[in-house]
Amino acid sequence: MSTEHTSHNDILPEPEVVEVSEGIFAYIQHDGSWCLNNPAFVDAGGQVIAIDACATERRTRAFRDAISSLSPNPVRTLVNTHSHFDHTYGNFLFADDAVIVGHRRCREDVLRDAPDLPARAPMMFPGVEWGEFRPAAPSVVFDDAMTLFAGDLELQLIYVSPAHTNTDAVVWIPERRVLIAGDIVFNRGTPFALMGSVAGWRSALVRLKQLPIETVIAGHGPVADASVLDEVDAYLAFVQDSARSAYDAGVDPLAAARDLDLGRFGEWTDTERIVGNLHRAYSELRGEAWGAEIDMFAAMGQMLEYNGGQPLRCLA
């Protein structure tokens, strides 16, 4: 069963700006659970490149205010690491002044989901103050990789999907050995592969471990060093091993999740994601392609059952 963390009524600490290297900042939204993502920004060469927006209008405005408080320079570029709305809902607050960059599939998914988002978000996470919403998708897209410059500082955008989704890219800053990982890294939170691939995610981590990374800005959770990649991989390996045993025994994902001892992973936020992760791992055990479409409604419904029939905890 799910692990208790802070409740819907808890008051979280204010977001924290962390300068991880000169001119490179993480905007940490505690406690990193559902919809509390970490945008980032790079201030160099007389301009700002922002990486991701936030899940609500209010939170994205606060992120913009934090940028303005630290830099007189304009935000000229916004990079979306993937299409999920906790990273793209607030895109419209940048769109008048900045070009939005993302993977081609990120653009497609944002445009596909935009018409339903004002109704869907409150259904998924009731009680959140979403604020104004206007669709704003990436207008500059790439396929495998793209390079941006902030002055002389090089930012490499690398497509690594399917992993968390089919739209994931990371931002690698080789001169500073900083990885802005998006949701390829959940630090002290449960990774979520339902909309991507467990096996593909592990493959992406193998690829990223080849980089000389010193600092990781996680998509959710605290700033970390490169060892956090091993932590994410350990959880995904646990999902695969657990799925194999249950699948071979003919046990459905919900029952398998209820029987599991999560061990140290049970201390992470949002443990109900194990159900969705098992659904994805079962798909791969059936021989379906990484990132193939599966029954999201059934998987999310079982996650709610695992969560005691309660809505998913979202403090955004």
Number of β-strand runs: 12
Shape: globular
* Strand order across the largest sheet: 1-2-3-4-5-6-7
Strand content: 15-25%
SSE arrangement, N to C: EEEEHEHEHHEEEEEHEHHHH
Chain-averaged pLDDT: 96
The CATH class name of the domain at 16-229 reads Alpha Beta
Cα Rg: 18 Å
What quaternary form is this? single chain
**Number of alpha- plus pi-helical segments:** 9
Helix content: 25-40%
Which spans have pLDDT < 50 for at least 5 consecutive residues? 1-8
Which CATH-level-2 architecture of the domain at 16-229? 4-Layer Sandwich
- What is the SS-derived class? alpha/beta
Question: Would you identify the CATH H-level superfamily of the domain at 16-229?
Answer: Ribonuclease Z/Hydroxyacylglutathione hydrolase-like
Largest sheet descriptor? 7 strands, mixed
Distance between the termini: 23 Å
The CATH topology of the domain at 16-229: Metallo-beta-lactamase, Chain A
Provide an overview of this structure.
With 316 residues, the chain is of the alpha/beta class. It has a domain of 214 residues: Metallo-beta-lactamase, Chain A. It is built from 9 helices and 12 strands. The longest helix is centred in the last third of the chain and has 22 residues.
